[in-house]
Every structure is written in C-alpha cells, then in structure tokens.
Amino acid sequence: MDTFTAIFDACVFYSAPLRDILLEISGEGIFRARWTNQIHDEWIRNVLNNNRHIKREQLARTRQLMDQAVPDCLVVGYEPLVDRLSLPDNNDRHVLAAAIVARAEIIVTYNIKDFPEHALKPYGLEAQHPDDFLVDQFDLAQGPVCMAIKRLRNRLKNPPMDVEAFLANLRQQQLHQFDKRLQLFKNVI
Known about the structure:
Blueprint: E1 4-8, H1 10-14, H2 16-26, E2 31-34, H3 37-50, H4 56-69, H5 79-82, H6 93-101, E3 106-108, H7 117-120, E4 126-128, H8 130-140, H9 142-155, H10 163-172, H11 176-183
Parallel strand pairs: 1-2, 1-3, 3-4
Helix pairs in contact: 2-9, 8-9, 8-11, 10-11
C-alpha cells in the first residue's frame, strides 16, 4: 500500500482520545504521521493552561511515548521557511513549514479556516478536519482501521469502554462521520 504523509496540528493532539486514535491508526501504515517539537510544545502548553490537575511530567511522558510509537515522526529543519509563509494566523506558519519540509499531502486540523486552500495549494497540500481524515483512512483500509480501533478500545482500562461508550466519545470529539462508519462494524471493534 502506498502511503502519504500527514502533519498533525497541535489542536488534534489536545484531546487524548483523538490523539490515541490517530496514533493507533498510524501504526497500520496507511499514512505516515509527522509533527514537530514546536507542535508538541503548543498542545502541551494548551492542555496545561486548561487543566490544572494535569502535571507537566505526565505530558512529557506522553510526548516521549508518542515519539517512540511513530518512527521518524519529528520534522526538523523547517524553521527557515516560517517567516516566508503567509497564513491568516501567523502562529500557524510553523505547521505549514513543517508540512512543506516533510513533503506532506495533508495537514490534519480542526482549524481549517487557518489553512486556506490558496495558501496550501502551491505546496500540494490540503487541510482536513480530523473527521474527514479518519473517514478517508477508513475508506482506504476498513479492516486495519477497525483492528486499530479494537486494539485501542481493548487497552482502555481506566475506565474500560464498551463499544457504545467509545462511539459516544467519538461524537464528543466532533468525529460524527467516523462514528457513522464504525457504527456498521460494532461487532468487530
């Protein structure tokens, strides 16, 4: 199977359930997952700002595990491009620069408006909402995606999640279309 490269914006790592889904499915080899240390810093900073009960050490451990779980995930050498790029939010230019250096095809983000088509098209990139991205992965490889979801769900121990609770959690993550796809495979996942 030919794979393509996807850059994950910090906003898709903010939520542990979505982060876990993306990383688990990336292990199936359908796509190549990439990010940067700057993207790590951003999602960790936002989680810490909004969740006083979470400790920095916990997220440092998560960061380390993420980097270990996905070979060659970290994009480096993108920094010189940042100032030359133009996006509605200058704080997102590092994501575009990393995508260019990584030769990615997709930036996965909830913030589609911050990555307009006219700014991405010259680089052969598109921005995708995580729901659209996951639906595309499902449509490319139903079996591997279902097996990845099953593995992930079976690992959940605190608390354990039955299929209905897991699918309800997807809807909370704005993954409505992905939820609809998986509804048809409840007996597998």
